[in-house]
Amino acid sequence: MKLVECPRDAMQGWTTFIPTTQKTAYLNALLRVGFDTLDFGSFVSPKAIPQLADTAEVLEGLDLSQSGTRLLAIVANLRGAETAAQHPQIRYIGFPLSVSETFQQRNTNKSIAQALDDVARMQELCARTGQEQVVYLSMGFGNPYGDAWSPAVLGEFTQKLDALGVGIVALSDTIGASTPATIAPPFRELSAAFPHIEFGAHLHTTPDTWREKVQAAYEAGCRRFDGALGGYGGCPMATDALTGNMPTERLIEYSQQAGEELPLNREALAEAEALNQQIFAAH
């Protein structure tokens, strides 16, 4: 089981700017924990995501010398990918491709067809730089716009990504719409149809539904999970009405119960949790 820690997702919607030094210290603490991957920042327009305008500066302050954790950066277009590709310490370049035409336009101001063109060009870029593209199928468990959704639709998208050589595809719950009934069938069917592709789950949850969501994905074959310490995301997990990121603490709990052995440094995890509380309590 692989854990992808996503401080980028936890911080990006925070309205008060978190100082660069504080971000860097927190990320360095997370690097010592032993996560498989750290979704640490994004190369997008600072007007769109002002909280992450300092990603390049933060990257310079990260200490990777004693960490096996791989870095992932999110981009919204080819220009962002080209910027990320200039930093060889970044292993993965992540791109959100929506299965909802409406959301693709809202999120990147492009059509799905145009976004797929970007994916193809980013894949070529990664082939040249030795990096790897991770495609997030956003609105992967349904959408509020009435756009078509089904496991078959996800299969059609995955077929196109497979033809381009994309090796990691993460089904992403953009709005907290996922339920066990919408989680299990896609993972079960996609894993069978594309056994050479690594599928991930980027789930959002309320405090009382996290277990059923993780269990649905895990039992359907998913072994790559995104989470964020404290369950922070666009909104913190303050009430049951909010759907923040899947709390990493809960993923660790589930992995232990499932008999998965994660190579985590518990002391470093405790330090990272303490910093997490300091940051989000102060901002």
UniProtKB/TrEMBL annotation:
Residue ranges of every copy of the Pyruvate carboxyltransferase domain listed in the record: 1-270
Organism classification: Bacteria, Pseudomonadati, Bacteroidota, Cytophagia, Cytophagales
Record's keyword annotation contains Lyase: yes
Organism: Hymenobacter lutimineralis
Protein keywords: Lyase, Metal-binding
Pfam families per the UniProt record, alphabetical: HMGL-like (PF00682)
Protein name: Hydroxymethylglutaryl-CoA lyase
UniProt-recorded Gene Ontology molecular function terms: hydroxymethylglutaryl-CoA lyase activity; metal ion binding
InterPro entries assigned: Aldolase_TIM, HMGL, PYR_CT
